[in-house]
Each structure stands twice: as structure tokens, then as C-alpha cells.
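We close this part of the discussion by returning to an individual protein. The sequence in question and its C-alpha cells are set out directly beneath this paragraph:
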Amino acid sequence: MIYDYPRAAAGMLVVKRDHVLLLERAHAPRVGYLDVPGGFIEAGESIEGAARRELFEETGLALGRVESLGFYWDTYFIRGFGRFPVMNFYFVGRWRRGEPRAADDAAAARWFPLAALGRHARRFAWPHMRPLLRDLARWAGR
């Protein structure tokens, strides 16, 4: 019997006034698509710690206080390994200082207006980004 165990991933949404930071993916899968700073959780790492590490590795940014935004299922595909389920945990925080610099898995880092995210939906790397960004808009509007 083969078990399809999910992998855990964590991401960090950064809000600057009425904009959110998104990255353009530099590596497969989904090269060139828009993504949230984040990645797989390493052994022994907390979920929030993983989200903070990925944000720093991919943008050079660090945040103060953050809060949990939600949990979203999706799938991921790696050539030679196949497709597997992913549990995506997201945190959100407000930008304070610094300019994002694309690094690691990111080809570019840009601020996108929250109100215009729907126009970019075809470029989202993962299906779960639609409900994630809807939840972010609700969070930002409270």
C-alpha cells in the first residue's frame, strides 16, 4: 500500500497600505507565475518560523507581529516524483520598512493593489491562491 502523505508549507502575506507583495516564480514548477513568499517547512521548524524564514530568503524582508490568516489545501508536482497534497499555512503582517529584493526562488517581487488582484488570477501559481487572496482582502478591510 502506498500512502499519499501531505507535505506542510508556510507562507507570509505582506500588506503595505492597500497592496500585497507577490513574487514571480523563478523555478519549476510554475516558472513565471505569481506566488506568495513561502515554501516547505523544514524538520523541527515551527510553522510561523518557516513562513518568516521563507519571507526573508525570498525577499530580504522581516516583519514584526504577524497573525495566522488560514489553512489551504492544494497539490504540488515535481517531475520524477509526481503529484502530492500540500497543507498551506499562511500568516499575514503589515509592512514596516525595507524594499523587497527577489532572491532564492523568486525572479521578481512586486506590490499588487488588493483591489486589482482579480485581474491577475490567471497568473496565480496555485488554485488555492484565489480563496487565500479573498480572505486577505477581508482581513485588510476589517
